Amino acid sequence: MNPLPVFVYGSLTCEDTAITTARLRALNIPFALHNREEDANVNTLLEKYNHGNRVTPTVVLGNEEIVFAEPTLETLQERLAEAGHIFTAPRATEVRGELKNQRVPNFTLTATRGDAFRLYNLRGHKRAVLFFVDDANARANQGYARQFTNRPGAFDDFNALPLPIVRADLETTQAWAHEFARGQMTLSDPHGKVKQQYSALLGVDAQEALVLILDSYYAPRAYSSARDAGGLITPDEILSWLRLLDSECDE
Q1: How is domain 6-82 classified at the CATH fold level?
Q2: Residues 68, 57: contact at Cβ < 8 Å?
């Protein structure tokens, strides 16, 4: 069976379109992109597929065999597999050796509510999952952040905190968090110093997108790095790692 061709109907200004197309590129799956700003027919198609609403992105596989809109990364991959596409989804890298038993360096950054946030002061040894945002204007980062912060209850179940860290001043970070992080506390790191330090610790390229999962003692346990946010692990995999950490005995 040949895989069904992939058509994406989106918008140049839509962060959900950006993360969807970035994921397709990361999975090496060819697709045709049609943006509403560039093709007058797109709005008509969007309304057709979404009960009169212009929802972006809308993904069509084949000759309308499978149609879905605003997919999560997980849903996108499930539908692609149904359509006969073979791919290897991004997986986290487990931290091994002595590094997984060592605390990452502490840091103090300004949070979006204006107070100082110190990593080691997380109450109750709460686990932190850090998503480093080098470019606040990159649509794929914005789209990933929406999905990363979309399930606060699931993170709470594992006593964990999804924590975006934006390389921008506080005012920019506050506006970014309101728009793309659903009001979730976000940290401002204007010069990207924490990202640089942690990338060096893990031995990854400081220019790559990075998600880092810490245990309750602030030791690094798993990470995902990629050319852009489209190549990072899904929130479901993050939760799987948190479930694993939750099952471990405290030492």
Answers
A1: Glutaredoxin (3.40.30)
A2: no
Q: What are phi and psi of 95, to 5 degrees?
A: -80, 130
Pair 43, 54: CB distance under 8 Å: yes
Of 9, 25, 29, the C-alpha closest to 17 is 9
Q: Looking at domain 93-247, which of 3.30.870.10, 3.40.50.2300, 3.20.20.80, 3.40.30.10 is its CATH number?
A: 3.40.30.10
List of residues 6+ apart from 207 with CB closer than 8 A: 134
Domain ranges of the chain: 6-82, 93-247
Q: Kindly state the tokens that stand for 227.
A: 């050319």
* Tens-place pLDDT, residues 41-97: 999 999 999 999 999 999 999 999 999 999 999 999 999 999 999 999 999 999 999
Burial 188-224 (b: 16+ CB within 10 A, else e): bbeebebbeebbebbebebebbbbbbbbbebebbbbb
Q: Please tell me if the domain spanning 6-82 has the same topology as the one spanning 93-247.
A: yes
Beta-bridge partner residues of 187: 111, 165
Query: In this predicted model, which residue has the larger pLDDT, 123 or 107?
Result: 107
Indicate if the pLDDT at residue 250 is higher than 70.
no
Chain-centre distance for alpha carbon 72: 10
Q: pTM value?
A: 0.96
Contacts of 60 (CB under 8 A, 6+ apart): 6, 7, 8, 9, 49, 66, 67
